[in-house]
Amino acid sequence: MKNLAPPEKRVDGPSQRGQFKKRASILEAAADVFCRQGFAGASIDEIAVEANVSRQTIYNHYCEKETLFVAVVDDVLKRANSMIFSMLATFPVNADNLEEDLVAFAIRINKNCICNQDGKFLRRLVQNEGERYPHLFETWRQQGPGRIISALGALFARLSASGALKIEDFDVAARQFLALGNADLQIMMLFGQTPSDEQLESAARNAVRTFLRAYGTATSPERPDLAAVSG
Amino acid sequence: MKNLAPPEKRVDGPSQRGQFKKRASILEAAADVFCRQGFAGASIDEIAVEANVSRQTIYNHYCEKETLFVAVVDDVLKRANSMIFSMLATFPVNADNLEEDLVAFAIRINKNCICNQDGKFLRRLVQNEGERYPHLFETWRQQGPGRIISALGALFARLSASGALKIEDFDVAARQFLALGNADLQIMMLFGQTPSDEQLESAARNAVRTFLRAYGTATSPERPDLAAVSG
DNA sequence: GACGTTTTAGACAACACTGTCTAATTTTAC
DNA sequence: GTAAAATTAGACAGTGTTGTCTAAAACGTC
């Protein structure tokens, strides 16, 4: 890590006029290798081979290994953030068919945000390098998860206001919804495995059933005989 | 990684007659450094300094870096396993004061198994090196989480049989209990932070309240007016 | 086709790390 | 106190990596 980069060498490298494909290829390969090997274990040569690019080209675009790393993290963070908010936009609006809609929503979140390559990469990277390079994730840490939970909480608030759910703390409910959605997948994901569609569906069903038992109003059909027991 | 270690060099090193303190000191320092830097990023010299030991001593006890790594993983896995099962032994037996007992249980699990140093180490290690050194975690992967969930599930089954809970799938309930317990702590833990006692308690309360709403029978006091709404 | 830019392969120095060796020193057992 | 065992500091070769440099080749644009 050089503290003083020579000012005549631009950090941003070529690409003013094109060669976007090279950059994209490097970013993708670097994400792969950094994810597999970690920052310390990743070698520029390995990235170059995987990107079908010469090592020098990497140094032309990103003057240091750390510059490349920062660019990869930025890229993945941006993509993951836009993905999660586009998924939040598919949250069910009305409450007819709520259970099925929530199941489908949970599947989408898990499949496209948590269990995909970007999700895996982010979990690893944050966990490994978050303490070593706090500045990389600081803004995401302060805004990312908090804003996601707030947004999801607001969606649950809407359902709660319409009487479909009965929730006191919307943010807690949002966190619990996500946590329940991962409950059956966490161990797989810890080992880097990707769940099958069947596993995704089963996990989502288990999660939503429990969530609706806790927060659903009486119209939820899936709580067979609690009223009978309580009455 | 040498494939053929000279047979006259014992893998287990000295310690037949004592020097346990050195070994323990090395193991502890190595766990620390491996956890912070990963396998590739950790240097033997750094471990030696942190253990207050010369580098040669490390090589005397563990002939290769990988041997040391394996020993550290074994050590942590054994300790974590024994801790989790000793915590499971404190699961509430009877159902009077169930909510408070479950809260205390969740706090104990989180504090002593999930949020402590060993838990952090294991999460990192499994996630990072689990694919590269599958043999290290294979037996734990097959037996560890599965047996933990089964054991916790059996405890919930006991409460269910006594009528205090109403659960269909005990293993699912066990996973959900643990997932709910982590719901409020996951982001902190991802960044390597350790929750305060207040945060631990609040997280456990939120988790148990929701869990009991989903699985509790009518005797649970904390579901204020579902019956009224449903009636 | 010509020109400026980008890419490439390869060589290169500087550095860090692993694992070995040795000889001196300290610790431990008896 | 003595002898065996363990530890230490330091030097060392071998290796891999980063980042630089150069000259040739490929590319894109006009």
TrEMBL record, chains A, B:
The keyword DNA-binding applies. Transmembrane segments: none annotated. SUPFAM superfamilies: Homeodomain-like (SSF46689), Tetracyclin repressor-like, C-terminal domain (SSF48498). Residues 20-80 form the HTH tetR-type domain. GO terms for molecular function: DNA-binding transcription factor activity; transcription cis-regulatory region binding. It comes from the Bacteria. Signal peptide: none annotated. Keywords: DNA-binding, Transcription, Transcription regulation. This is TetR family transcriptional regulator. It comes from Rhizobium mongolense USDA 1844. The lineage of its organism: Bacteria, Pseudomonadati, Pseudomonadota, Alphaproteobacteria, Hyphomicrobiales.
